TrEMBL record:
It comes from Pseudonocardia ammonioxydans. SUPFAM superfamilies: Cobalamin (vitamin B12)-binding domain, Putative DNA-binding domain. Pfam families: MerR_1. PROSITE patterns: HTH_MERR_2 (PS50937). Residues 33-102 form the HTH merR-type domain. This is MerR HTH family regulatory protein. Residues 1-31, 95-126, 169-196 are annotated as: Disordered. GO terms for molecular function: cobalamin binding; DNA binding; metal ion binding.
Length: 351
């Protein structure tokens, strides 16, 4: 079968360019012609995910030298394509990568020649991860949930996993929110007439499994020297911790040290921690209006820059100097800005 290759963003191939270096009648072996960005686009993943796959599963450009740009041949890309197809058929990622590496080049699934229409993203080749997560939750299958979430965290990081996988799955799994709960992302549960208890137990399993993955120790940069850290606390009476756990997982991935106090922290304890711990910025999470108390958060402001996080604060008027945070990205922006400015710059400026 003739091999036809798609070569977006080509760079000049290395080696013999005359096309006469191979055996008579054989197609010449072309040098690396794919950039990492082109391969990522072809597979429908981010370049960061591509790097993670290379590091974790040992697949990538052959003969790559450290410190130089990565360039991929058709054969290199075929390994990724084969791995994604196997993964799409339900095979675990590690097994799919091993089989793809061992597949002879002549039988590997080659890139398809369609410049205007890249190969479908990996997430479309199989059931969408959100669908898989919701299905596993309704089966009360915590092991499958943890496998999907952990793989996403490894490949794309905690912030992307939280926004693109966990939040939509939670929105589809639990019962419709009440007005006090604040808005939920995504569509309502697929069957609003299903047994409410079934929604609740599925949401409990999903929440527990996501929390376990977010709090699981991972390979992170070496621990920094003692110094100011972001301090995370749920307001007194607030038991919803999952979004705060996502922030606690995402901050170290950006090299920002964090300290977590946990759920339902009494206001005097938050005040004590802000005064006695070296705090760069304090995030106080409130999921509902019942736990969002502007008067109490105002007393924390003299000790450290304060950010009110979560939907509970949406209808509250915040004291001067307290910044409102409505998303994980917003919280990360505040932390980056304040912690890069140094301890002396206490007041978070407007985004």
């Amino acid at each position: 079968m003739a091999r036809v290759s798609l070569r977006p963003d080509p760079v000049p191939p290395t080696g013999d360019r005359s096309g006469t270096g191979g055996p008579a009648g054989a197609a010449p072996e072309r040098g690396p012609a794919w950039t990492a960005a082109a391969v990522a686009r072809h597979l429908g993943v981010s370049p960061a995910t591509l790097r993670s796959w290379s590091a974790r599963y040992g697949i990538g450009p052959r003969g790559h030298e450290a410190g130089r740009h990565r360039r991929f041949t058709d054969a290199d890309v075929a390994v990724f394509v084969t791995m994604c197809r196997l993964r799409g058929q339900g095979m675990p990622m590690g097994t799919a990568a091993q089989l793809a590496r061992e597949t002879p080049p002549e039988t590997a699934i080659r890139p398809r020649p369609s410049p205007a229409r890249p190969a479908p993203p990996m997430r479309q080749a199989a059931d969408h991860p959100v669908d898989a997560l919701v299905t596993a939750a309704r089966r009360l299958d915590a092991e499958s949930i943890m496998s999907i979430v952990a793989e996403s965290i490894t490949g794309q990081g905690s912030a992307v996993t939280w926004n693109e996988l966990c939040r939509p799955a939670l929105a589809r799994t639990g019962p419709p929110p009440t007005a006090a709960d604040g808005p939920r992302p995504g569509p309502p549960p697929a069957d609003p007439d299903e047994d409410p208890l079934a929604c609740i137990d599925a949401e409990c399993v999903l929440t527990w499994a996501i929390s376990s993955c977010l709090r699981r120790p991972r390979a992170l940069p070496p621990r920094s020297a003692p110094g100011p850290r972001a301090l995370l606390a749920c307001a007194e009476g607030e038991q919803h911790t999952l979004a705060m756990e996502a922030l606690a997982a995402a901050l170290p991935e950006e090299g920002l040290p964090v300290r977590v106090l946990g759920p339902s922290v009494p206001w005097p304890a938050i005040d004590h921690a802000a005064r006695h711990a070296s705090t760069a910025v304090l995030f106080v999470w409130a999921q509902t209006g019942r736990t969002a108390r502007p008067g109490r958060i105002a007393r924390l402001e003299p000790h450290a820059p304060v950010a009110a996080a979560g939907p509970g604060w949406a209808a509250r008027r915040l004291p001067d100097g307290v910044e409102r945070v409505e998303s994980l990205e917003g919280a990360l922006r505040v932390a980056r800005r304040v912690m890069s400015a140094g301890v002396g710059d206490r007041s978070p400026a407007a985004p």
